[in-house]
Protein: TonB family protein
Organism: Mizugakiibacter sediminis
Amino acid sequence: MTTPSTGKSVHAAAWLLAGIAALGGCRRAAVRVDPPNRGDVSYRALIDPAQPRYVLEPRQSFSKPEPVDHPAPVYPPELLPLRLPAQTFAAKVIVGADGRVVDVRMLAAPGASAPPHADAFAAAIRRAVTAWTYTPLRIVTWAETDRGAEARRVETRPFSLDYAFTFAVKDGRPVVTNDAK
């Protein structure tokens, strides 16, 4: 059968449309499957206004260090079967002048005792965080010249940031939460 206006076969077009409709019925929705025995972890920076900061002199500016690579810690696989309640730990991340982490210090609330399995969570934090990198913190000293302001000296400096890490498993499956309690 052909259409009068185009002279093309309607029969072939009908088969093509039927085939597309049949294939559309076979399409599956994408399903996310989490790997078994893997917990997820969230983390966030803690801002402490009382923490010492660099004081800039007149004619100085700084470039804020930015995270370059920040893999999250992995939930300790040996603890997943225990179905522990959400665990939040704080750590001070000390970064060298080159932007690489040089030390990770676990922070405890004053008077608080370490929760069960704290060593395994702390080890997971240390393993991940020691791989973190940042752009260096740069302090620039400017000078006025006949051509305008000019950078006279650029120094990179070490810095530290505090983070809260929350490890959680719900119904035997990993979940991510930003609730630091």
Summary: The two ends are 73 Å apart (CA to CA). The chain has one domain: 35-174. Helices lie at 10-26, 118-129. The beta strands are 40-46, 60-63, 67-69, 87-95, 101-107, 133-134, 137-145, 148-157, 159-170, 173-174.
